[in-house]
Amino acid sequence: MKKISLFKHSFLLPRVLAISVITILSLRLVQANHFSPQDSTGNYTVSGKLKDYDSGWIYLRHGEGLKQGQQIDSTKIIHGEFTFNGKVSGIEPFLLGVHYKDNKGNILPSKRYQGPFILSPGKLYGEGKFELPNFWTFSGTKEQDEYNTYKTN
After folding, report:
1. Of these four, 15, 23, 50, 83, which has the most CB atoms within 10 Å of its CB?
2. What is the pTM of this model?
């Protein structure tokens, strides 16, 4: 009997898993909206530390769905720290991006995006290293913590 692989390319697996988690979290949010009160303000704060990137700009953009790739905000990195504030309705996957730098520290026009993390109302903290792809850790909201648990299982 011949085996059929759904994932001929291993790079698709993390993306499929992320979409699955987002779908599950979205369904939980719909259920929560029907059965318990939610914070109707939708305010979020995303703060964090980029350990090897002292200054520059960091960008927040949509990670999946119809708005994929749409940049929604940017903020200055000061001494490796940054903060975004805004409003969001529901929960959505997002990415953070910074400009590449050459070996002399000069900022280049291209950007590297990392994530995803789950943006939802509340306070979220992220920490990472620019030089290590996918080395970001995020925590602070119930939805992000559930996503973290899912990723480690």
Report:
1. 50
2. 0.68
